[in-house]
Amino acid sequence: MQIGFIGLGSMGAAIAMNLFKSGHQVQVFNRNPDRTEPLRRAGATVAASPAEAAQRADVVFSMVADDAALTSVTLGENGILAGLRPGAVHISMSTIGVDTAHALTVRHHEAGVGFVSAPVFGRPDAAAARKLFIMAAGADEHLKVAVPLLEQLGQSVGIVGLVPSQANLVKLIGNFMLSVIIETLGEACAVAGKAGIDPMHFVDLLTNANFNAPPYKIYGSMIASQQFQPAGFSLPLGQKDNRLMLAAAEALGVPLPLASFVHDRFLAVRAQGIGAEHDWSAVALCALTDAGMRKHA
Prior knowledge:
alpha/beta, Rossmann fold, N-(1-d-carboxylethyl)-l-norvaline Dehydrogenase, domain 2, 53% helix, globular, HIBADH-like_NADP-bd, 6PGD_dom2, NAD binding, oxidoreductase activity
């Protein structure tokens, strides 16, 4: 299949490489052309614009950082819709807001092309290993095209519904839940450490008991060791998703006191100079600092 791929960050590059390895003809675009080199060397074609990557494609994937970036690469003068032929499908794997997903669904319908939202749960190593959990939503005829491709990229594809924005809401809810786990791990490690229990041993004990799940294992180890680099998912992106979750909940008239608390934690840790080079689990430094348990000033 002819595939265009827009966005070659740590997640997008791994996903695009897996599509290429699966035997598809892949044409890629990234704003920073240096990121295209590994795929070019592997045999993929490099496009000069999103429109060029879309021109001959049956399906175009996008995996970019935020709403503004996706809107730009999709609706810009040389964007995806400028090149995508009628009947083709755009699969957006980015974590974006519900309003943006709805607006893009309308624009794609007006252009006569399909739009599927398929955000993912998983970090770059999971993307490379085809172990992502993918949430997909879109019209049935578009999902029939998208799902077989998505199944090549992850360990499961959950069908959320017929409205693309529903998949984006599920992803935001999931990230909200993960952010609360990070906060609780920070507080728990602070209490254990203050009592003289080695935080790494504490996390090991719990993750071999009732908390034997990847989020507790991955983030528990990072928080217990206070090692937040390199960033698998950067702190500003986590903060962005928290804002999008609060906006979606407000639009629905749903109070989220825990998300509001985590929002303030993000602001506090950013005020300490923690930024894009740190994993979003560094938000746990707030609890550790409050308890006098932070290792590094």
